[in-house]
Prior knowledge:
By secondary structure, this protein is of the alpha+beta class.
Amino acid sequence: MEQGFMEILQxxxxxxxxDVILDASKCKSLLADYTKGEYKKESKFLLKALEAKVQKxxxxxxxxxxxxxxxxxxxNEEEGIDEKIAIDLVDTLFFILRGVEKKGSGEAxxxxxxxxxxxxxxxxxxxxxxxxxxxxxxYGMYTIKDGxxxxxxxIFKNSAKPAHREIIAKPFMKNQPSMEFRIFENNSIxxxxxxxxxxxxxxxxxxELTPGLSVNDQIKINFxxxxxxxFTVSAVDLTNNLPLPVxxxxxxx
Length: 253
């Protein structure tokens, strides 16, 4: 990637935060202003990678090398981007979002040029994993946006396993006994997916709340896919630092 273009992306993040890259539509609206009409080819390929949600996988992965290979393959095989360009795009996103860069054909390193202990461990784990260790589905929650029923994906297809995402929710009334959510899976890598393109996982998914919580108390909801591909939901009462029971009812049980 051209050094000038890299510096522009770093400037965007410095001034507006990582969300300017994580949100493809936000990046698209600002990129032309920052590049002042230059770097059109680089901008085109970057936006294509962002629309494929590569940046989300890069930003959240715990397995850097596995994720890198998977996202390069995604851009090359599914998005039709030349392999060299795909490598450049993925490495650029790792560098600007995580401070990780590639040194030749070697393993990922920090921007200082030396492998951190965590990255060294990841490299060992990577050698023990198959290239196909990614999520085969996207997982999300039912919501209504602009009057339409959609599933807001939290974990995305093609993200490296294990995958983790968490959100914060609040009770809508004092001393609320529970929260109920609808959880779906789908094959889309879009953030919001029409509900008719999704499959509901559970007949019911209910989080039992700590008695006495107010509307200002926070509940952390965790979404996880482990290395075996098992999707789970868990929750924590952040006010009292207590794990909360999550009761799911499987269809037909």
